[in-house]
Amino acid sequence: MQYWTELYKEIAERITGKMPEIVWIDLWHDQISFLTEELPFDTPAVFISFSTVALDDRGGLVQDCDTQIDMFLFHETFSDTYATSGNQDRALDFLNTLTRLHAIFHGKNGTNYSGMRRVDMRREESGGSGNLYRISFQCVVTDYSAQDIFIETEDPARELEVEKDGVPARTEMPPLYEAG
After folding, report:
1. How many CA atoms lie within 13 A of 60 on its CB side?
2. Beta sheet of 45-59, edge-to-edge order
3. What is the pLDDT of residue 130?
4. pTM of the predicted model, to two decimals?
5. Which of 101, 114, 83 minimizes the C-alpha distance to 1?
6. How far is it, in rounded angstroms, from Cα 44 to Cα 22?
7. Alpha carbon distance 91, 42 (integer Å)
8. Distance between CA atoms of 77 and 126, rounded to whole angstroms?
9. Residue 69 φ then ψ, to 5°
10. How confident is the model at residue 166 (pLDDT cuts 50, 70, 90)?
11. Are 141 and 67 in contact (CB under 8 A)?
């Protein structure tokens, strides 16, 4: 991977291609807590967040990043999930969508990640505005961005010249304080 945008786009394309019921995909920046201030979006929606868990230097400005990818599935619904509800099946579609989101990533490799596995799943607070669950995956992302952006070149006009003439002369300095 050269840029985190590549990873984001790959995940978004996988969701779009495998889950046509998802109508909005975006980076997570706590949109659910600010529904009146945020850009309006349709549901069901998936929001994606990245964080690194551990970093290993491979050399040459390349790192293997043990990365956590959080996917927040949000669905507004007025259907009831209780056992005798007439619209229980419609309400439980949300859980089926959550299961499918897990299935399209767990155990899979991509162009920009390898070894994706689910490490957590939980309900998140949505302020009463709908169903919000976070499903977390971990994978290894090899990050080449520093290598690709920082290109080291040689400039003979800026070469340092090292001279070996022995140890430089030492000059005596007055003491910093007088012993009393």
Report:
1. 6
2. 24-27, 45-59, 62-75, 131-143, 114-123
3. 73
4. 0.74
5. 114
6. 5
7. 17
8. 12
9. -115, 115
10. low
11. yes
Residue with tokens 């000059």: 171
Give the closest residue to 98 by CA, choosing from 45, 135, 137. Answer: 135
Pair of tokens at residue 166: 């022995």
Q: What is the DSSP letter of 50?
A: E
Q: How far apart are CA 127 and CA 94, in angstroms?
A: 17
If we measure between CA atoms, which residue out of 6, 30, 29, 16 comes closest to residue 129? 30
Element (H or E) spanning 29, and its range?
Answer: none
Which residue do the tokens 């012993």 mark?
A: 179
Question: Which uninterrupted H or E stretch holds 4?
Answer: helix 4-18
Residue 70: strand pairing partners: 49, 136
pLDDT at 128 over 70: no
- State the DSSP code for 78: -
Given a contact cutoff of 8 angstroms between Cβ atoms, the answer to whether 94 and 44 are in contact is yes
Rounded average pLDDT over 28-48: 75
> Could you give the percent of the chain with pLDDT greater than 90?
48
